[in-house]
Amino acid sequence: MNPQPLESAIVDVDVLDEPGCADVSERLESLRPHWLTRGIGYFTLGLATYLDVANSDNPQQTYFGRLARSNHILRDHFGDLLDRVADVLALLLNTPTRYDERVALPGFHVFEDTGIAVDPRPSQHFDLQHRLMPWPFRIAPVEQSVSFTLPLALPHCGGAMDVWDVTEADMLRLERTGETSETIGATEAARRHEYRVGRMAVQLTPILHRIAAVPARHPEDKRITLQGHGIRDADGWVLYW
Q1: Distant-in-sequence, close-in-space partners of 91: CB < 8 Å, separation ≥ 6
Q2: For the structural domain made of 7-240, what CATH number should be given?
Q3: Nearest to 151, CA basis, from 27, 5, 13, 39
């Protein structure tokens, strides 16, 4: 496999300075009782389509049933950040952006302790969760989606996304020759897309990726990111998680 580099698939844009990130992280810590435990050392504040719809036996309960309370917490405590992200994305995409209270607002990933990977984990994927979402509004007939990650706190050794220059169309062709995302992850070297606190990585084209491991883990390390996606409808981009 010799894919062409897809450097333009991910664009970095500045959103917050370091004091601003520290302020958001402190607000998030004060809301720890509202965090949802997703695994060992792995939490979210907010609901996520990939967890609470795509990987749920009862999305009506796990996603839509908890939506109003979750969105209220996020909007009440992080409305300024959400508005800032929407403005930055509207400029980048040159199209209006908005939130819709009928779907989950962008929320937070928090990794602590052994939740921070020091060995690569076979979790490479495409962000295609929107196809499993029962949208309460009409999305654009030609599928258009984006994903974004805003790092707010990173481990001492930094943070990154492992990226393979493989699109979904590439993957469908490769599958005809016996390749899978697992074999690609095991045999093909990833390109590291380094994160910087306060700088949002926007995935303009769904490509194969995963959270990158760090070479060493410190006891006080945290990996905190604001996560979200965008889906097009007739009026612009709806931002959600």
Answers
A1: none
A2: 2.60.120.620
A3: 13
pTM value > 0.85: yes
d(CA 70, CA 73) in angstroms, rounded, equals 5
Strands (E), the chain: 10-14, 36-39, 42-45, 97-99, 107-112, 145-153, 160-167, 191-194, 199-203, 207-211, 222-233, 236-240
| 74 neighbors 107 (Cβ within 8 angstroms) | yes
Residue 1 structure tokens: 């496999």
b/e map 213-239, b = 16+ CB within 10 Å: bbeebeeebbbbbbbbbbbbeeebbbb
pLDDT tens digit sequence for 34-66:
999 999 999 999 999 999 999 999 999 999 999
Q: How many CB atoms lie within 10 A of CB 74?
A: 25
Q: Is the pLDDT of residue 163 over 50?
A: yes
User: To the nearest whole number, what is the mean pLDDT of the chain?
Assistant: 93
Residue 241 gets which letter from DSSP?
Answer: -
Which residues are registered as beta bridge partners of 44? 36, 109
**How far apart, in Å, are the Cα atoms of 208 and each of 63, 179, 236?**
25, 13, 25
Residue 73 to residues 28, 78, 127, 135: CA-CA distances in angstroms?
Answer: 11, 8, 25, 22
Domain boundaries, the chain: 7-240
Q: CA 190 to CA 186: how far, in whole Å?
A: 10
pLDDT at 7: 55
Give me 182's structure tokens.
């697992």
